[in-house]
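Just curious. Protein, please.
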Amino acid sequence: MLDQLAFKPHLLDWFEKEQRQMPWRETKNPYYIWISEVMLQQTQVDTVRDYYHRFVEAFPTIEDLANAHEDDVLKLWEGLGYYSRARNFHTAAKEVVALHDGIVPQQPDTFLKLKGVGPYTQAAVMSIAFDLPLATVDGNVFRVWSRLNDDDRDTALQSTRKAYESELAPYVAHQSGDFNQAMMELGALVCTPKAPLCLFCPVQTHCEAYGRGTVLERPVKTKKLKKKTLNFDVYVVQNQSGDYLIEQRTASLLKGMWQFPMVEHGANQNEDVFDIEQLMIQRKNVVKVKHQFTHLTWHLNVHTATVDEAAAPIIAKGRQWMAPSEKDDYSFPVPMTKIFNAVHEAE
C-alpha cells in the first residue's frame, strides 16, 4: 500500500497547479456540485460545460428545479443522453424540498436515500461540498489506483470497488474533496487508458505498475457483453398543413421524451399503430439512422408520408400534431433530431 505521507502531497501539489478551470469548481454550493456530478456521469467535461451553465441559469435554486415541469427539465437535457439521470435528479430535488426544507442533506446516509444517488455521487458531493471523508471511485480512480499498486483485481466486480473505497479511506481523512478531484483529474489528463503520460506523472516514483512495466495491463476488467441491436420502423407523418405527428415515449428508455411514431420491425403492428398504412397518400423512404446507446444500438428505417387532412384526426389518436416551428418546444432524443434534420435536408 502506498505511503500517503509521500504520495498525497505530490498529487495535491500537482492538482493545485494543473487542474482545469471548471465552473463547478468555483463554488461550494452542494446543489451546483450535485448538478455537475450528475451531468458528468458517462459524459465528457467539455460537453457538460454549456449544459451546466444553461441548467443553472434556468434553475438557480433547488426549489426552482423541484417546481419545474418534467418536459422543461428534459428539454434542457436534450442531447446530453442518459435521460434517467435528469428524471431522477428532478425527483430528488422534489424530495429535498419536501423532506429537507430545500437544503441538500449534509448527512451522507440521508443524501444516499435520495432518488438516483449512488455511492459515487454520494462520495463526490459530500466530499467536495462538505469535505466529508468519503472516497470517490469512478473509472479514472480505478485506473490510477490499480496502476499505482500494480493491482490485478477485476475492477468490474463490486467487491473490488468496496476494497478500493476502504483502501482509499486514509487518504480522504483530510482534504477529501481536493484529493478525490485530484485522483480523477490525474486519470483524465495524465493516467489515461491507452497512452498514459507516465513521464509527466507527478506520482510516477510511487507507481508500482510503472516500475514493473505493467501500466497498460492495468486496470484488469472483464469484458462487457455485446450490445443488443433493435430494428425499428419510424414514420415521419405530415398532414397537408405540414405539421408532424408525434407521440410521447412511455418505455423506460427515454421515457417522457417525444418521438415520431415508431414500432419494432417485424412486431405486430396493432390498428392504433398503423391505420396510417392505409391512409397515406404519398410515401417514400428517406434515410436509415443508426444510434448507439451504452448497451443498445438502434437501427431506424425511416418512412415519410403525407396524409389527407380528413384522415388526420384518426391518425392523431393518442398522439398530437406539431408544427415544424414548434420543434424546439419539445424534448426530442438525439435519434429523432437526426431524423427531423434528415427529412428537412431531403425536402
